[in-house]
Amino acid sequence: MTRDGLKKVLITGATSGIGEGLVDRYSKSHNVVACGRNEEKLSKLSGNNVQTLKFDMTEKAQVASAFVDIEQLDIVILNAGVCEYIDDARRFDAELFERVIHANVIATGYCIEALLPKLKPGGQLVIVSSSASFLPLPRAQAYGASKAALSYLTRVMQIELEDIDVTLVHPGFVETPLTDKNDFPMPFLVTVENACEAIFQGVESRKKEIHFPKRFTLLLKLFALLPFSLWMPLAKRIKR
Q1: How many domains does the chain have?
Q2: Buried-most residue among 57, 153, 180, 197 (CB within 10 A)?
């Protein structure tokens, strides 16, 4: 059931991590369309102010058909994505690379094409990238490249879209099932609740960029100003 008079927010990747947290946060004061692939998890989200849509974002036909009956939206948050690493650069895994690029970049494009016509004038498009896009990092050939592509895409959309506000989100490390798989230190790790509150408040303020935690993301931005010849030995030390 949804309440009339509230803004309508569509969120992808709604069955886990940041997406699930955003559904919980937005459903307190907005009508939410929660999107994902896992029917069992989606059923647990359905309730007051939340309707669910089950489809695979990597399948263009499924994306197009999923949104046919969706009426105008106030906010679209494209959050869904995957993270896989290439452990041995000498044995580059092209299938892994394709899988990550397709899930994180191409699938986002499918959603933008299908959902932009649904966004009201004055609406908001929010794309969740990653602070990994700031710098080349070990093992992140696929993940980092996909997030850098999303950041570039979002910046261009900010230039091109005149009647829609576009927000780019650069999270640091967030405690989710995705990061639970990481086998390396994650400095300044934040909870899903804190991450979602930062995103919620930033979107409400119609910020062009949301990045957090600041003590981490500002440090990465500072490193990104270094000549690559200075950053490369630091990155090699991280790898070791």
Answers
A1: 1
A2: 57
